[in-house]
Design brief:
- The complex is a heterodimer of chains A (387) and B (126).
- Chain A has helices at residues 17-23, 39-59, 72-87, 102-113, 131-137, 160-169, 189-192, 241-279, 306-315, 325-328, 335-339, 344-348, 361-381, and strands at 5-6, 66-69, 93-97, 117-121, 142-146, 173-177, 196-200, 211-215, 283-285, 296-301, 318-319, 350-354.
- The relative contact order of chain A is 0.16.
- Chain A is α/β, with parallel strands linked by helices.
- Chain B has a single domain (4-121), classed as Sufe protein. Chain: A.
- Chain B is an alpha+beta fold and 126 residues long.
- Chain B is built from 6 helices and 3 strands; from the N terminus they run αβββααααα.
- The longest helix of chain B is centred in the C-terminal third of the chain and has 20 residues, at 106-125.
- Chain B has a 3-stranded antiparallel β-sheet with strand order 1-2-3.
- The chains are: A alpha/beta (387), B alpha+beta (126).
- At the A-B interface, helix 9 and helix 12 of A face helix 1, strand 2, strand 3, helix 2 and helix 5 of B.
Chain lengths: 387, 126
């Protein structure tokens, strides 16, 4: 059978065996509704609160500041629309960057249609924002700054702490999408000076369809989902018990294994980046070399197109992703790659490989053996090569 | 997402390469949209004696290029001009809807190569 190597951990991670073990009883014996008064409800309620404590502990929050959601898209949407709604008397201006995930970017565009003003700060050629850009953009009408922590495509880690200090001093709310960083690098809501933070379970070895929003005590946040007053009346809907248990367990494992996980991923990442730069000509690394997620490799290969690269890798058992238009579902390549100044042609030839706990050095060796052959073949076929 | 036939032509493309002294060359697409197809033809009388392609693009772009070369090799110029983008897609067992538009231009590239050949003939006659 073909050897399969998964290098798409920024898309989703495999479920950790301990997570799988932890959720099984909640698909059997423990099925109660946590809102119920009886013992069936109480035992599940207790498990949810334990999960909340674990998530809070991972990010340095108080348990009551963690609210479970259906995932980071809901968390991002809620933070943005919830702050806008509850604070519109104070102002109608939001600040974000031009490399946010669509869960933030599209929500901001919707706010513009609703009459809010949004500033999209441009990042530099490495995908970094500079805190002084944020400072200069804040006006008396600014009610929210939302900047992602680690970029899902190019891996750049923003100076959230420095931005947070500025935003806090101006008395403006600060949200960060920490989906790619939570469980990957140290994330602490007090050090980062954020008021709101989005978390996802399935990017850190938990299940899909569950996440959390950290909401600092005292934050004026409007409701997003109305109903049965679950989650301290903040987010209604009978809890996704299995998902929440998975997130709690994933957070517990992440806290325990963080250092080891970072060291493992960084080693594989650097081996992959250096190997590609050494073996393949006409290639560039996208994103900052130093301020970078430990698991992220994003490179552009001149003269080839991303989707055909992905298909060829898949035929060899390697799973990766690309920012090419063909894989984005639109006619344009990734907005992140264009934002760092890549031409359409170079952006189309991008390849993202994101490593994780299940990868080994042998996996990277295999990629470094296969990738140059694929590149030679595709370039020989390309009318742009040798021109 | 792709049919078996598409994957066959993608992983074992037919007639890849360039051609020295090609009688006609046609190119469509641009790097901005992510697809460029170039087709070379060698013509003997009315017949396409040989055909080669080079493509920068996605799986569908490569497979349609390969398929069109297979469909017209040995055919007359008139027969080749009747091959449409749609016919190429059908011969591949269909393409995903999103690919019908941007990546299904191989027949256009072939037609341009034939036009190029005919224009060169006219030039020679003058």
């Amino acid at each position: 059978m073909l050897k399969r190597i998964y290098l798409d951990h920024a898309a989703t991670t495999p479920v950790h065996p301990e997570v799988r073990e932890a959720v099984l009883p909640f698909m059997g014996e423990y099925f109660g509704n946590p809102s119920s008064v009886h013992s069936f409800g109480r035992e599940v309620k207790k498990a949810i609160e334990e999960a909340r404590e674990k998530v809070a502990s991972l990010v340095g929050a108080k348990p009551e500041e963690i609210i479970f959601t259906s995932g980071a898209t809901e968390s991002d949407n809620w933070a943005i629309f919830g702050i806008a709604k509850a604070n519109e008397k104070k102002g109608n201006h939001i600040i974000t960057s031009n490399i946010e995930h669509h869960a933030v970017g599209d929500a901001c565009e919707m706010l513009e249609k609703m009459g809010f003003e949004v500033t999209y700060l441009p990042v530099d050629e490495n995908g970094l924002l500079h805190p002084e850009q944020v400072e200069a953009a804040i006006t008396e009408k600014t009610i929210l700054v939302t900047i992602m922590h680690g970029n899902n495509e190019i891996g750049t880690i923003q100076p959230i702490k420095e931005i947070g200090e500025i935003v806090k001093a101006k008395g403006v709310y600060f949200h960060t999408d920490a989906v790619q960083t939570t469980g990957q690098i140290p994330v602490n809501v007090n050090e980062l000076k954020v008021d709101l933070m989005s978390i996802s379970a399935h990017k850190m070895y938990g299940l899909k369809g569950v996440g959390a929003l950290y909401v600092r005590k005292g934050t004026k946040l409007g409701k997003f989902i109305y109903g049965g007053a679950q989650e301290r009346r903040k987010r209604s809907g009978t809890e996704n018990i299995v998902g929440i248990i998975s997130l709690g367990k994933a957070a517990e494992i992440a806290q325990r294994e963080l250092e080891q996980r970072m060291a493992h991923n960084t080693k594989l990442r650097d081996k992959l980046i250096n190997g590609i730069l050494e073996k393949i000509p006409h290639v560039r690394l996208n994103g900052d070399r130093e301020k970078r997620l430990p698991n992220n490799v994003n490179m552009s290969f001149q003269y080839v197109e991303g989707e055909s690269l992905l298909l060829n890798l898949d035929l060899k058992g390697i799973a990766a992703s690309s920012g090419s238009a063909c894989t984005s579902g639109s006619l344009d390549p990734s907005h992140v790659l264009l934002a760092i100044g890549l031409s359409h042609e170079i952006a189309h030839g991008s390849l993202r490989m994101t490593v994780g706990s299940d990868n080994t050095e042998a996996d990277i060796d295999y990629v470094l053996e296969v990738l140059p052959e694929i590149m030679d073949r595709l370039r020989a076929m390309s009318p742009l090569y040798n021109k | 997402m792709y049919s078996e036939k598409v994957m066959d032509h993608f992983s074992n493309p037919r007639n890849v390469g360039t051609m020295d002294n090609a009688k006609g060359v046609g190119e469509v697409g641009n790097a901005k949209c992510g697809d460029i197809m170039r087709i070379y033809i060698d013509v003997d009388g009315e017949k396409i004696k040989d055909v080669k392609f080079q493509t920068f693009g996605c799986g569908a772009a490569i497979a349609t290029s390969s398929m069109v070369t297979e469909m017209v090799k040995g055919k007359t110029l008139d027969e080749a001009l009747k091959v449409t983008n749609k016919a190429v897609a059908e011969a591949l067992g269909g393409l995903p809807p999103a690919k019908m538009h941007c990546s299904n231009l191989a027949a256009d590239a072939l037609h341009k190569a034939i036009e190029d050949y005919k224009a060169k003939l006219e030039e020679e006659k003058k």
